[in-house]
């Protein structure tokens, strides 16, 4: 990816108007709802503009009668899906609400939960999703594919032209404001349940997030660990790129943690951080990670075909040789 194709989203350091305030309330018919707080963070996302544009286009209204789409961001964990959605939504100037989906998420968790408040009265708490609907913000349903069909079913009317949800607990129907937008992230290794077809067809388009290329990966590491020395960033980048080459489940988040841990050990002991790189890989990725760093590809059927040299043509001038330097790999090592 060239420098011009890469883009860091605008820093989003400004505070939202009610970021630290008491929870706001809103009356819906006979029910007073206690609203959730938006997530306010300084987050930037690094990567190809194409992905940002896919998300922005899906959320765009072409004309008055159009409705926004509900994209799903799919890919391996730790590749920046949540970060991308958050950064784009903030770039569009919206409040962002994140709902973390789990296998235990119940329909009412997604919509309105009754809570015993002072004087034994019931307070109705609007979920981050419903708060986003009421305030015209963006909701990120994070890791949606962990959620059961029953929970998804409660969102079916929201995800088509009807754009409302019903709360059985509070006995009200809640329409989304026109500015409301939603997207869902899905880790492709983490399905607890099969997402039902009628929901999948409402979560369109699919936006695929894949492993970053070398320059982008280094920029991601640098963005998240700006105090890491250049050589350490290079070493971590090479290690991750080599892992992507073998399709191993190591990602930018792991790289960030490896750097942070090595730097903490360095600070504690006064030794250079490079001395702790291997230990840090072990701490974050376990013994498989260390063995990979030392040049052994985890055994999978046919993995011999994936060893360095087997894939490379003589006229292939890719950067593989650079991977082996400085990251424990040795081209002649037949281990
Ligand atoms: N493209 C990227 N730009 C900026 N930060 C990234 C990127 N990819 C990963 N990260 C960092 O890696 C970590 C994991 O990203 P996250 O968005 O939680 O991944 P996912 O949602 O795909 O599991 C975060 O700390 C994030 O800052
Ligand atoms: Mg995520």
Summarize this entry quickly.
The chain is α/β, with parallel strands linked by helices and 335 residues long. It is built from eleven helices and 13 strands. It folds into two domains: 206 residues, P-loop containing nucleotide triphosphate hydrolases (Rossmann fold, 3-Layer(aba) Sandwich); 111 residues, no CATH class.
CATH superfamily of the largest domain: P-loop containing nucleotide triphosphate hydrolases
Poorly predicted segments = 1-19, 304-335
Number of strands: 13
User: What gross morphology would you assign?
Assistant: elongated
- What is the CA-CA span between the terminal residues? 33 Å
Radius of gyration: 23 Å
The distinct bound ligands, ions and cofactors come out as: adenosine-5'-diphosphate, magnesium ion
The helix/strand series, from N terminus to C terminus, equals: EEEEHEHEHEEHEHEEEHEHHHHH
So what's the CATH class of the largest domain? Alpha Beta
Helical amount: 25-40%
The total domain count is: 2
Class by SSE composition: alpha/beta
- Helical run tally: 11
CATH architecture of the largest domain: 3-Layer(aba) Sandwich
How would you write the strand order of the largest sheet? 6-9-12-5-13
**CATH topology label of the largest domain:** Rossmann fold
- Major beta-sheet overview: 5 strands, parallel
**Mean of residue pLDDT values:** 86
Beta-strand proportion = 15-25%
């Amino acid at each position: 990816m060239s420098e011009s194709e890469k883009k860091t989203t605008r820093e989003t350091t400004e505070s939202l108007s009610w970021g630290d305030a008491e929870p706001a309330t809103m009356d819906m018919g006979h029910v007073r709802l206690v609203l959730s707080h938006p997530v306010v963070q300084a987050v930037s996302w690094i990567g190809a503009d194409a992905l940002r544009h896919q998300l922005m286009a899906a959320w765009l209204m072409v004309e008055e009668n159009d409705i926004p789409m509900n994209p799903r961001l799919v890919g391996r964990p730790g590749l920046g899906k949540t970060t991308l959605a958050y950064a784009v939504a903030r770039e569009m100037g919206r409040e962002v609400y994140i709902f973390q989906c789990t296998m235990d998420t119940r329909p009412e968790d997604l919509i309105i939960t009754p809570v015993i408040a002072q004087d034994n009265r019931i307070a109705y708490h609007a979920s981050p999703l419903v708060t986003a609907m009421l305030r015209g913000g963006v909701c990120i349903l994070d890791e949606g594919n962990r959620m059961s069909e029953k929970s998804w079913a409660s969102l079916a009317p929201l995800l088509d032209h009807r754009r409302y949800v019903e709360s059985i607990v509070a006995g009200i129907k809640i329409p989304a404001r026109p500015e409301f937008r939603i997207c869902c992230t899905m880790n492709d290794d983490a399905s607890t349940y099969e997402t039902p077809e009628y929901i999948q067809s409402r979560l369109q388009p699919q936006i695929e997030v894949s492993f970053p290329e070398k320059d982008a990966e280094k920029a991601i590491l640098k963005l998240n660990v700006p105090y890491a020395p250049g050589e350490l960033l290079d070493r971590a980048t090479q290690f991750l790129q080599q892992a992507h080459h073998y399709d191993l489940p190591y990602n930018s988040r792991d790289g960030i943690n490896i750097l942070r841990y090595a730097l903490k050990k360095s600070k504690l002991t006064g030794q250079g951080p490079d001395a702790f790189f291997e230990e840090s890989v072990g701490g974050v990725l376990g013994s498989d990670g260390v063995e990979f760093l030392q040049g052994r590809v985890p055994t999978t059927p046919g993995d011999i075909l994936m060893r360095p040299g087997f894939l490379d043509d003589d006229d292939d001038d890719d950067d593989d040789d650079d991977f082996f330097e400085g990251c424990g790999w040795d081209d002649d090592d037949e281990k």
